[in-house]
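User: Some background: our group keeps a shared notebook of sequences we're curious about, and every so often someone picks one and asks for a predicted structure to add to the entry. Today it's my turn. The entry only has the sequence so far, pasted here. Could you supply the structure so I can complete it?
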Amino acid sequence: MSIEFDYPLAAEIARNVAAAIAEDVGAGDLTAALVPGERHVRARVIARESGVLCGTAWFDECVHRLDPTATVTWQAADGERIGADQLLCTIDGNGRALLTAERSALNFLQLLSAVASKARIYADAISGTRAQVVDTRKTLPGLRIAQKYAVRAGGGGNHRLALWDAILIKENHIHAAGGIAQAMAAAQQVAAAAADRCKFIQVEVENLDELNQALAAGATMILLDNFSCALLREAVALNAGRAILEASGNVSLESIREIAETGVDRISVGALTKDVKALDLSLRFVD
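Assistant: Of course. Here's the predicted structure to add to the notebook entry:
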């Protein structure tokens, strides 16, 4: 299936994989040298638990870095639900190269599938509401783009990718600028000067008075930080559709449905990328 994602992935995948292979292989794989250099093998990857598959391109790149002639044949695609004991792919290639690539390839596939699986669970939990679950910048260093792609594969949305593509005015920015109106005015100037890359301006508020100030300053995206559900409902009524409202702070799987039913547009969840358990996948030689 096709995953809509706004960032070019090819160079990012190459960068991620080069770093992973360099980290793992270094001066050379001592153990793989036990296998005859000309040995050709077939292997397969099996899911040991259900989830959502993600990271196939990272897996392929790991394999092809070590054996450019290898073939990887996938039976499932990024974004598809997978079940326990399901065959995910078969690999034909050089045995020594595949042994060297195995850990890095599985690390990417297990991590990104875990993120996609968690995003799918949260997205399903608010199905039928107007709200969308989105990620945050709480990602593993060096894997920001990969994890945000995985969130999209799981049915979630992306907040800003990084500091360079959008403005989020938080409490310290407001304090330093002298108030919400002053911070908004400065942000509008910065956004105009960086119009080729600044996708939006969002301001974080902590109460209804600050919400009113943000709306008066012309905010079109507002983050409601740690609002109770009762306050979220008041905020939605007060906003009356003028700005996109995002709920944030201590969101859990148990609370997200109630939050979504308040009428907010987006709910940001750091746990999508920060608190993940690798999906259980296994690679085994079959001949």
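Suggested note for the entry: Residues 111 and 278 are 5 Å apart (CA to CA). The mean pLDDT is 96.
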